[in-house]
Task: inverse folding
């Protein structure tokens, strides 16, 4: 069971509550000027659960270099590695490794790729 | 004598009205002395701590009555409601999911219909706080998700706390609703902006607020 959150709500008006299914969303910035940038893949791995999921960088917005990679139905325990695979014969490398489930959602802004827009 | 009331966190306009002997929130909201407040808060359900409300003196009314006949009086008795609409982020049907609400002295144990909407009439003297327990998997005896709710605490969209509250409800986690622009808030706002084709800068500017208000509904 997830920890209870405190939700500020409005009286009389409808309060829309959206339930988010277990997923890890990684905001990822690509360089469209790099050859074959859209062939890159991100691989989320959880060794304890012998689980991994591969997401390719398929949906780059035309007006932005940001891609939202969503890993769905992820295990809710254990540690995670995220690897970037250029998918061009070059070796894959770690974006992060051995991150517990509870800290997974902190990873996106901490990554090198997002560093230039983290202002805290 | 005219008084002035300063709104505190969690107060609703109806409860303020009743505190001063009025039966409806409209008696205060539509009073000419509150025209400025009304312009500032176009939705009477979304008032903000620190707002000043003028409490006009109550006037005696003289109504001619007829003898030997029934004189009928209708007393307006405005009610407050808590309305919650549950949905999944991926559009899955929520029909059949069990929800238990504990609001003030009331416990409502119900099953969602396809629209995910629950409506509860609030008791006048009840606290506007409670819990929502959701049982999303069949046969579960402990809730899959639990939320503490603070009705009347959602701030107007113009405020950062109002942005945080709405984002959290819509599944874009901004962390604690504290009016502070921290890392979590920036991420939640960015995710909202991405989802709604806005410029992704993590700053809740006018366009982001307008979209958030539209998506949230108030």
Result:
């Amino acid at each position: 069971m997830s920890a209870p959150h405190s939700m500020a709500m409005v009286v009389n008006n409808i309060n829309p509550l959206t339930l988010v299914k277990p997923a890890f969303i990684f905001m990822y910035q690509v360089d469209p000027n790099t050859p074959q940038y859209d062939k890159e893949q991100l691989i989320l791995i959880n060794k304890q659960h012998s689980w991994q999921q591969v997401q390719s960088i398929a949906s780059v917005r035309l007006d932005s270099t940001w891609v939202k990679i969503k890993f769905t139905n992820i295990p809710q325990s254990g540690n995670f590695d995220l690897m970037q695979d250029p998918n061009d014969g070059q070796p894959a490398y770690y974006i992060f490794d051995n991150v517990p489930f509870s800290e997974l959602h902190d990873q996106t802004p901490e990554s090198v790729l997002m560093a230039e827009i983290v202002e805290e | 004598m005219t008084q002035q009331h300063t709104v505190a966190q969690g107060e609703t306009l109806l409860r303020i009205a009743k505190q001063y002997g009025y039966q409806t929130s409209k008696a205060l909201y539509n009073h000419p002395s509150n025209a400025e407040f009304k312009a500032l808060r176009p939705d009477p359900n979304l008032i903000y701590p620190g707002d000043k409300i003028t409490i006009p003196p109550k006037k005696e009314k003289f109504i001619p009555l007829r003898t030997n006949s029934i004189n009928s009086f209708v007393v307006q008795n405005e009610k407050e409601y808590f309305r919650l609409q549950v949905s999944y982020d991926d559009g899955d049907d929520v029909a059949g999911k069990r929800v238990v609400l504990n609001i003030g002295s009331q416990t409502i144990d119900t099953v969602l219909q396809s629209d995910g909407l629950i409506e509860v009439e609030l008791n006048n003297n009840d606290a506007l706080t409670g819990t929502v327990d959701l049982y999303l998997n069949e046969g579960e005896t402990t809730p899959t998700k639990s939320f503490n709710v603070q009705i009347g605490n959602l701030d107007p969209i113009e405020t950062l706390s109002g942005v945080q509250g709405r984002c959290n409800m819509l599944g874009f986690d901004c962390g604690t609703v504290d009016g502070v622009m921290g890392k979590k808030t920036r991420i939640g706002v960015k995710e909202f902006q991405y989802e709604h084709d806005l410029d992704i800068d993590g700053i809740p500017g006018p366009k982001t607020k307008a979209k958030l208000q539209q998506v949230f509904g108030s």
